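Thread: Modeling a multi-component assembly for a lab meeting

Hi all, long-time lurker, first post. My supervisor asked me to bring a structural picture of a complex we are working on to next week's group meeting, and I have zero experience with this. I have the sequence lines for every component (987 residues in total). Could someone generate the structure of the whole assembly? Inputs are pasted exactly as I received them:
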Amino acid sequence: MKVSMFITCISDAVYPRIGEAMARLLAKYGVALHFPTIQTCCGQPAFNSGYWGEARASAKTILEAFEDSDFVIAPSGSCIGMIHHYPKLFEDDPILVATAERLQKKSYEFTQFLVQVLGVNDVGATFPHKVAYHPSCHGSRILGIKEEPMTLMRNVKGMELLPLPFAEDCCGFGGTFAVKMSDISGAMVNEKADHVLESEAEVLVGLDMACLMNIAGNLRYRNKPIRVMHLAELLYEGVEHA
Amino acid sequence: MTETHQAWLAQMESESRAKQEQFMKGIAGRLGHPRLTNAPPHPFRGAPDFWQSFEWSSDERVQHFTDNFEAAGGHVHRLSDMQEVQSFICSKATELSARYVIHQNETELNNLQLKEKLEDVIVTQWNSGSDEDWIARAAEADIGIVMADYAVSHTGSIVVVSSEDKGRSVSLLPTALIAIIPLERLKTRLGEVLITFDEAGRDQLPAGIHFISGPSRSADIENDLTIGVHGPGVVFAVIVG
Amino acid sequence: MSKTDIKGTTVKGRAELALNDDFLRKAVKFTTERLRDGKRKASDDLGNWEEWRERGRQIRLHTIAHLDYYLNQFANQARLNGVHVHFADTAEDAVKITLAIAERKQSLSVVKSKSMVTEELHLNQALESIGVDVVESDLGEYIIQLAGETPSHIIIPAIHKNRYQIADLLSNEAGETLPPDTAILAGFVRKKLREKFLEADIGMTGCNFAIAETGSMVLFENEGNARMVSTVPSTQITLMGMERIIPSWSDLEVMATLLPRSATGQKLTVYMSGITGPRRQEDGDGPDEMHIIIIDNGRSLQLGDPEFQELLNCIRCGACLNACPVYRHIGGHAYGGTYSGPIGAVLTPALNKNIDQWDDIASASTLCGACYEACPVKIPLHDMLIYLRRRKVERGLGDKMESIGMRGFAAIMSNSKRYENALKVGKLAQRLVVKDGEITSKLGPLKGWNNYRVAPSLAKQSFRDQWGTMEEEIRHGIQEIDPLVSNRMEEIVRNREAGGKGHD
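Re: Modeling a multi-component assembly
Sure thing. I ran the full set together rather than chain by chain. Output:
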């Protein structure tokens, strides 16, 4: 049984502790992750902007990296969502399209894997803080990830999960959108951060570092001392302190 | 219609038929199939199955119709017979200080003898004989009175159809509308009424079929709801039976 | 070109103007939230919303997939009802036919109910150019007509106007000062338009749905003006997009269940009217003469295109506008076309053959998928936006700087060694701008991001840098995997290989 880590470029380069939290948490359930180093980036930034040739160049490293994996896990709904686009992206290549379809079937976002495959609802974490949850768009709408993170969070001892007003509204990242349409993106992230502040949470948690980086950046810019964490980090920290 | 106008229409029609062929060829070509001459099988016709068997009891229909119609700003009354309807109309006419009333040329309404019962009110029977400007009569009316052909409780709607004796204007132009709904015509679902039009077939359909679900309204000005914009601002649904 | 002109030519530029208009943003936000809440409540009350959506989607897909049959049937049946049916390939053709009818009837005034397709055609200006007075009778459309503007929302066209602006416009028309009171303003419009309805010689409508089997057309509205213009004037002209067809009245139940709930949260609009031909000879009202103009104007371009054919499913409910966070911030005019919001971002380019005229409209989206989630007929607008972007790039019309950047991206990301080297270089380079692990500089490429945020820095040690040591440490003390769990995993793999879907 080969279970592989799809670290995602943003986690790899900017937030390596997410990957660490995931690996250590999964180890507690006896899952030893493999990390094929030829992986680079899922190709989403190029794909979303319409540069599919360039997207394929990057995506091929992912196809190759996980060719012989049984399970592929990533700390990101949008990167797994991108894998769901691979059959379309490679539709003109009969060999790679088959690889893409195989990869799609074995790829999981982190909470999906924990809950659906490992059958874990309660990691035994304690995290006595007020927390608000931001459901990233790709994960919740496209992959349908709604129950899994809620289940895991509800079982964290001492944690008060506060409702986030207009939680399902997009944070405004959208990849290159944040730079190309920077003022609209800025307006959207300001609004999202306003809602986070309204919730009176001390910690904002989510499943996607792209969104969280965006919101955290805005909160920091406005000097608001709210801690922003990936759920894997939160759960791991909660387990370590239990 | 003048001869030249008819000739022009005929000319337009032959152009249109030629264009139609072009259109359809183009569409079939783009869709990648030969021109379809037979009706394609349509397995998804109408509402989902679970809905097609959905039905409320008579009491439930009255209750839901009332809730929905009132929520939209309409008024609902339950009366036992046309005698009570007659009294109801008279009292409303007085209450609204109506001077002009118009009603469809239907037996049930004619039998109410409103011309006699409503003193100092000019009562018009739609399209009844003389050469009148019926639209103008409807426009000047304070109250329009119709018999509903159907009603739908799920959406709180009254259904009226047009004919020689039933003008579209009667339920549209007056300031207030009174629609009388015989209980047996009150259905649960929209589909129950709509299917009758499918079953009747093209050549049996009237020019106008109207579902009315309350008083005319608009929220175009700063989302502020206003009632009675073009159609009747006061609507009474009277369920009889 | 003045600064405002430049700002007016791109979505980004217009968006900037919109973002600085406080009233507009508040108004759009308030309205879209109200409509969104309405839809949510209505769909919850109804129950089984997903099943209704799927049904709506199937009916529309089926009709479009057999459009040559159904459109043909509609036209033939409508003619048998006494309707004069016309076909127009382009907007110009449609305008030509309309003007011909107006001239034939020596029309002096036309009274119109709301029709998005007539906005596409810029029909009002054309009629006015031949001396025909055109009046919009929908309250919101009347207001923007007086203001000389285009609608900024498919369902609530004057969302961007406040009551003071509206009072001014109407006072001008009234020749006296009207207070900014909704009831009084609406009362004035009712009276004023009543005269127009009664004196107009042509009534013009759009068409929400056309029923193929009986040649009937269906109108949804709340004010009563569509009923007015199709009952009172002696001639009726209806303009319809060629895709607005459904097979039967039974199918109308599904549309009537989805459309009002999606648009405003109503169970049904106050008026739903099915019109089958002009007046019968014995009728006391209704038009003597009725025309229906069926318009292509780029719609047929979507047929046979697997990426865009579903676009023709659209029932113009506006739910996508109300769900879209971008729309909520910039309003409808920023999109620069007849249609705005997510549907507009796709429809405007799709209907136009020239990709080079699309400017940046397809870029005004984060691809969050809220539109797809909201769409009652499940149009994958979020995917279509990507296809549009790809087509623009394929035609060599992508932004030059962006193309270069993407090529660089591909060069680095196609090879993990190059990627690792790039990280090394990045970590060195960022020393110029990193302070305490953050980047606040707004120089050059950092400006867009850092105008609103603080950027994080690249980690000193990437995950892959750390993995070697980490892996060893982890494997050293690892638990034995629970046999139940490993059995489950093996089962999943077996199912997958046997052709199962994989996981949910």
